[in-house]
# Entry
Amino acid sequence: MIDDLCISIDHEMDIVSARQKARELATAVGFTSTDQTLIALAISEIARNIISYARCGKVTLRRVEDGGRRGMLIVARDDGPGIADIELAMRDGYSTGRSLGVGLPGAKRVMDDFELVSSPGQGTTVTMKKWLP
Amino acid sequence: MPVPILKQGDVLIASIQAALLDRDLVQLRDDIADQIGKFRSRGVVIDVMALDVLDSFATRTLRSIAYTAKLRGARTVVVGIQPEVAFGMVQLGLSLDGVATALDLEEGLAYIGGLAHQDVHRDR
# Structure
């Protein structure tokens, strides 16, 4: 059974494989197909941000347990330019790149826990969790 | 892998396969814009039934395909958005505003056919 997966993101093809692997793990953890889709969608947005802004990085997928709760942890890490204004980046419709500006706030909406750590020149780490209901 | 485009009468049908890459979607937009001129197509049906996720990039590119096709004189309808995919789009805040959608290929073709019918009546 898959428990811990690290996926390098340095080509748009890796977005597809990150999505597929996340879905496999989500299935193994026991998520409904709707939740699998939400997880795959969040990963798609976060992995695409890595390609668009940092060029390369990695996504780690792990099953987690916390006081009887079971779920899935996703960590996306890159050493790209980082984000100067996190509050602004988390705002719906805001984008510095060629996107709709829904990726980060959208991913936060579909996951249960969401944390973004970043500063200019220090790269970006997004940590997201989804728990089984 | 490029998205195959079938020509049926004056309608182009593009059936998107799973695991689509960003560049394939962008290529599809360019191919459709070309083929509308080549085949004098009046309608475009994009079938996304095989997709298990429509993310912000895919949504934006579908909108851009529909708008490009409109500027080329053809109507676009996106068909086959699966229930979970639709729910995910709503949750993420993605919209296909301004793009016609239909349940499946059959409904999509009927929609395009209906538009052609209206156009005929309007011409009279």
Q: What stands out?
A: Chain B has a mean pLDDT of 92.
